[in-house]
Amino acid sequence: MDTEAELTQRGHSSPEQGEGRPRSAFSGSSSSGSRPSGSWLSGPWRSGSWKRAGLIGAVCAVFLLMLANFVVQPFQIPSRSMEPTLQVGDRVLVNKLAYRFGAEPRRGDVVVFDGAGSFVREPADGNPVADAVHGAFAALGLAEPSDTDFVKRVVGVGGDDVVCCDQGGRIQVNGVPVDEPYLYAGDSASKVPFRIVVPLGTLWVMGDHRSQSRDSRDHLGEPGGGMVPVEKVIGRADWIGWPVSRWGSVSGARAGDGSDG
C-alpha cells in the first residue's frame, strides 16, 4: 500500500477542505473583500438601528400626546396664585376623565380651565405651526401652559349664593360658612367684599393665595361676570407629579355643606 503518497496528500490538504472553506478563512481578512464581522458598520450605529429608534420614538411621542389629550395631561404651574397647595414650577397631572361622563366640578375641586372669553379676551389668530408646537410641548408638561389656561379652586357652582364675608371673615356658600384650611398663611378669605349668585352651567373660582390671585373677583364687571363656563374646564388637578419631593395628591376641601353640589 502506498502510504507515503497518502500521507503526502493529507499534508497538503486542510481539515476543512471537505467543507469547501479555504485555509484563509482563519486569517483576519477574506479573499473576497467582504467586511470583517467586527466592523463598526455592523454594530448598533448602522442606519437600520437609527430608523428603528426613530420609529419607536415617534410612536412613544404620539402615544403620550394622545394620553395628554384624552386622559391625563401634565400642567406646569406658572404663578403663585395657588400657594401653598401648588407652587411655581410644579407639574400637576390633570385628570381629563373626571368630568367626561356626566360628572361636574364640585366645590373644593382644583380645576384647570380655558379662560378665553371669561378671564381673558379671545386670542387673535397666531402662527398655527408655532401654536401647534407650543401646544404639544405644553401638553407634555415641557413648556408653560397657554396664556389662556388657568388653575383655580371651585368655590361656587351653578345656583350657589356666594357671599364675602361674614363676621368671622369667612366666605359663605348658601348661608353656610366655608372652612378654608388651604388658604395661604396670613391671607384673608377676600379683601374685596362681594355677593353673587352663580348662574347655572358656570363656576365661581378663586386662588388659594388670595392676595396674589387674579380670579373671579377681578372680572365681576366684565362680560360673564367672572364666571367660568363648565364646558371650558379642561380637567381636575388630582396629583403633583413633579418635583419628586412633592409627589402626592392635590389637597382639596368641599366648600360649604348647605347644598348637594
Kindly describe this structure:
- This protein has 261 residues and is of the alpha+beta class.
- It folds into two domains: 41-70; 74-249, Umud Fragment, subunit A (Ribbon).
- Helix content is 17%, strand content 21%.
- The protein is built from three helices and twelve strands.
- It has helices at residues 3-11, 47-70, 128-139; strands at 72-76, 91-95, 110-114, 149-157, 161-164, 172-173, 176-177, 194-197, 202-206, 228-229, 233-242, 248-249.
- Strands 1, 2, 3, 4, 9, 10, 11 and 12 form an eight-stranded antiparallel beta sheet that branches.
- A hairpin with a 2-residue loop joins strand 6 and strand 7 (176-177).
- The longest helix has 24 residues, at 47-70.
- The radius of gyration is 33 Å and the shape is elongated.
- 28% of the residues are buried.
